[in-house]
Amino acid sequence: MTVLPSTAPQAVTAACPVADAASAVVISSEQILNLLPHRYPFALVDRVVEYVPGKRAVALKNVTINEPQFQGHFPGRPLMPGVLIVEAMAQVGGLIVTQMPDLPKGLFVFAGIDGVRFRRPVVPGDQLLITCELLSLKRRRFGKVHATATVEGERVCSGELMFSLVD
Q1: Domain count, the chain
Q2: CATH code, domain with 20
Q3: CB atoms within 10 A of CB 38
Q4: Strand 3-5 to strand 127-138: parallel, antiparallel, or no bridges (unpaired)?
């Protein structure tokens, strides 16, 4: 389950200085650890390469053979489990939702998944490019994002992810 802390929007703004209008805002892995509660082996976002506060985030997940799930999924043919692809997308979505201004304190958790489809396997050596766009934020407690994961420009997974604030 994805658990995301509700934090002030200044955290991301301070963590992501913009060099100039032509360069993308980048959030490093160290900065991501300050924004999301996930830790090894569940920290699945390596770097944010584009961030538009309250609207959109694009991030990278490097898939490596030394990740623990590949010991058993599957011996002789390592494939990244679909649930971990969805979890990585949710963590990127969480970076958007948790940084919305004026949200009450608490944790955002996964509340739903709609229309998620897997289109091709993800294997060690792949680099997931995950794009999330905020679709809605209702009553300051419920968020919905559209998420897409690609490898080398080819879509591997997409769908809508919902979050709910837990007091």
Answers
A1: 1
A2: 3.10.129.10
A3: 19
A4: unpaired
Q: 38 an active-site residue?
A: no
Helix (H) or strand (E) holding 8: none
Rounded to whole angstroms, the Cα distance separating 142 from 51 reads 21
CA distances from 108 to 93, 140, 157, 162, 164 (A): 11, 11, 22, 10, 5
Task: Identify which of 90, 94, 114 has the alpha carbon closest to the alpha carbon of residue 106.
Answer: 94
67-78 tens-digit pLDDT: 999 999 999 999
For residue 15, report the phi and psi dihedrals to the nearest 5 degrees: -80, -15
**Which position among 3, 73, 106, 116 bears the catalytic label?**
73
C-alpha–C-alpha distance, residues 50 and 26, integer Å: 6
- Which residue range is the domain that position 26 belongs to? 3-166
Quick: pLDDT tens for 119-157: 999 999 999 999 999 999 998 889 999 999 999 999 999
